[in-house]
Hints:
Layout: H1 6-11, H2 16-25, H3 27-48, H4 56-74
Amino acid sequence: MAxxxxxxxxxxPDREDRIHALFxxxxxxxxxCIEHILCTSKILEIKKGNKNxxxxxxxxxxxxxxxxxxxxxxx
Length: 75
């Protein structure tokens, strides 16, 4: 999972140390990160398949909400 955490670090590169520390110590933060990673994977899967999936917008909305949640932890 640490390798997948790179996608979170890319979003907030100036907070890399904090991301690692929270991921190891805070279960709620870890859950939000995992949800974001899974959501991002689903978005990429839909786009890669060139599917005109009506759910794509919902996943993108969820992704943005999860990014806001992550940012709250990092504040």
